[in-house]
Amino acid sequence: MDFISKRVASLAVSQTLAMSQRSQELRAAGVDVINLSVGEPDFDTPDHIKEAAKRAIDENFTRYTPVPGYLSLRKAIAEKLSRENGLTFAPEQIVVGNGAKQELCNVILATVNPGDEVIIPTPAWVSYVEMVKLAEGRVVEIPTGIDSDFKLTPAQLEAAITERTRLVMFCSPSNPTGSVYSRDELVALAAVLERHPSVLVLADEIYEHINYTGSFTSMASLPGLEGRVIVINGVSKAYAMTGWRIGYCAAPLPIAKAVSKLQGQYTSGASSIAQKAAEAAYTGPQDCVAAMCEAFRRRRDLVVALAKEIPGLKVNEPQGAFYLFPEVSAYIGTHTPEGRAIASDSDLAMYLLDEAHVATVAGSAFCAPGYIRFSYATSDDNLREAMRRIAAALARLSR
Ligand code: PMP
Ligand code: GLU
Question: What is the per-residue pLDDT for 212?
Fold first, then answer.
């Protein structure tokens, strides 16, 4: 007898987390694995943020928090949205939760009815499709490839919208491709959406600050989309705070209220201590953000240069986030010297883990077979050694 609900049985396991766990297990067993799988800054949380958390404990911020988050934190977020993005959101329109991940899922559950269509340009982060499945929505993928720098065109968007479309999901800078839409590109997409006023936009802006273009445009600032963009963001990436689990949505008031109602029934407000830390992140000095971005940019240059030297890898130059997403189809259909077939990008990722001891994530997990994702949020030495091992392992594959 299997007691698992159909809803959960049909969900895929998060491949980013699974690959990372596998690499940790191998490391615990004594294997020298380089982990380029999970995407998280390798920096420590800045000291002034850690101090704020310690103070929060001493000052007894230890009780249940308001479901949408402390008012002081929501005010700090509203100020951030105004200062950095030119947006006007009242604190009542902001809901803080356990990471951007929870708020993404909350918004989807709060807005998507069974059978509603949700447009997801792909490659897309592993959890989007699964969250839509939880809400019993219908995923409409719009595939993009490396030749268009993984960017959706207005014509593709127009062609995908139907009268059943409820939500369009965007992620810029993108996980897993690192692509960043320019303001002009976003304005052109917004012009399409302006013709479809019943469509909501879910803009995942979690990589806002890991952006090498020098400019960032929030979807919520675009003309024609007033009142129907939900912004997702949080402290995980910008402030190296993945473990603190604080993210938020900023949404039209009825949606924020619905998200808060949902959250009130199944997780309540996020950790009091982590919220106080996040408040310090938003109100404190911001030079740590730029310094980490600069370090990621340097590593991007390094990893792109090294990957371009590997025959058969097709590489673009990511403009943000901390991922490289090369096309690897030259290696699909090959076999190892022992005769093991590499029939898919998943086989290739497993081969790289087993043979090169480098953990990556297969493109299929991002709805993009034929690609592979490297997270370059690690040291230069690790990156050099990882790319050396990958090159050597790939050179052993033959047709
Ligand atoms: N969106 C994207 C695109 C991500 O890569 C991540 C990283 N896990 C998240 C959302 C969630 O971030 P968190 O829950 O740590 O705030
Ligand atoms: N966003 C990161 C990644 O894609 C963290 C892991 C996750 O939550 O998926 O690797």
Answer: 98
